[in-house]
Amino acid sequence: MKKKILSLLLCIMMAASLAVGCGAKQENTQTNETNTETSNSSTSNGSTEEITLTLWSIATESDAFHPAYTKAIADFEAANPGVKIVHETFENQSYKTKIKSAVAANELPDIFYTWGGGFSKPFVESGKVLPLDDYFGAYQDELPEAALTNVRFDGKLYGATYTTPLSAVFYNKKIFEENGLQVPTNWDEFIAVCKTLKEKGITPIGISAKDTWVIAMTHDNLVLKSAGPEKVAAALTKSGQTYNDPDFIAASAKLRELIDLGVYPEGAAGLSNDEASAMFYNGDVAMFITGSWMAGSLQTDPENPEDFDVFQFPAVGGNGKATDFMGGATDSFMVNASTPHKDIAAKAAFELAKSISKYAYLDGAGIAAWKIDYDDSSVNPITKKIANFASEATSFTIWYDTLMEAEDAGEYLALLQELYMGNISPEEFAEAMANQLEQ
User: Fold this and answer.
1) Which of 2, 76, 423, 426 has a 20 to 30 A CA-CA distance from 16?
2) In this structure, are 269 and 305 located in the same domain?
3) How many domains does the chain have?
């Protein structure tokens, strides 16, 4: 009897113990769920858990825009505690391949640098880019609508631009002065300057034929000044203008004229842009045709920055004017439509663009696309001269490999290298371009 009572008591105690245990477990589960909700809520407000955004760009350490990027990122992180931006950089030409592959593989970073116009059109059409209209309202008084022309597609905004670059001719004015040379204002004068430099044993113009976009800086200008902005835009956007046209052929013939005259360094086919630029900074060549970003590098890379200056690409005869410029606001940040942090990534795209616009202009690396509401008295004279070119421009035409769609641009650069190497004639180049653009 005592044993039965003892067994009964033990069973009651065990049941009570299990009940308490189950109650405790249920209470802990509820607490964990509450903590998870609180944690998720805090993360969405950006107050507790760190958010990491990956940014891709071409602003390598040797690029004139690199300091501006670094300062802009530091400012954004300071103003947005808990947000970290990882900046990954790539060389210009290889980046064009990388970004296209990333779009195709759905492996874009949160924010990525790109060029507006035809280059980014396929990205937008693929649905991989986040529309930014809902985020632009806070910035519309600071970023002119004209700066957004090349990042609007079907009426929607997909990019935040930060600079208005243009092509120009940078030159060593000390070399010019020592050889009694004046800045040329037309093609005949430009050729005469090149011939005089050659006679003096000085290489007239630096170039990279390995990085084909550097050749394009000269060729695009020649076509623009020969055919005019309307013809160029119509041909490259497949709007009723054939590329196999006398004005286009004449422009390519002028590039061949320069090559045959021997104005470029020996071995240019193997030089990268950085190597070719270094020759200019070192005084080994007298001129360099590239984008306005070189103005910033001229303040830091040469031993004697005061030896350098800039002039606009001369008129060559034809439909174009000296005040028609290759360039315009295309350098942009776009946001991955699949990023898990859409709001903060979109904010970062605009804030970084705004800051880089400012810092790059103050550094002399670029012409500001955003409103200048700060003291710019420290900006170097070369950058201010280029800004004046921009203010007096009669037109802007974005570079060939940006205005055209990506597939056409790739074929253009390949054909241009063939033209440079002498493997095809100007006529064959024009015919091949016409065939490509008719596809």
Assistant:
1) 2
2) yes
3) 2
Same domain, yes or no, for 219 and 318? yes
Enclosing H/E stretch for 233: helix 229-236
> Both tokens of residue 54?
């990956």
Q: What is the pTM of this model?
A: 0.77
Distance between the two ends of the chain, CA-based, in angstroms? 101
Domain coverage including residue 139: 51-164+329-373
Q: Answer yes or no: is 7 within a domain.
A: no
Write down the mean pLDDT value for the chain: 89
Q: Do 174 and 293 fall within a single domain?
A: yes
Q: For residue 425, give the CATH number of its domain.
A: 3.40.190.10
The burial class, CB within 10 Å (0-12 / 13-18 / 19+), for 33 is exposed
Q: Tell me the CA distances in angstroms from 33 to 40, 45, 46, 305, one per residue in order.
A: 11, 19, 20, 63
Triad 379, 385, 389: Cα angle to 5°: 130
Three-state SS for 315? Answer: strand
Per-residue pLDDT of 4-60, as tens digits, reads 433 444 344 444 443 434 333 333 333 333 232 323 333 334 445 799 999 999 999
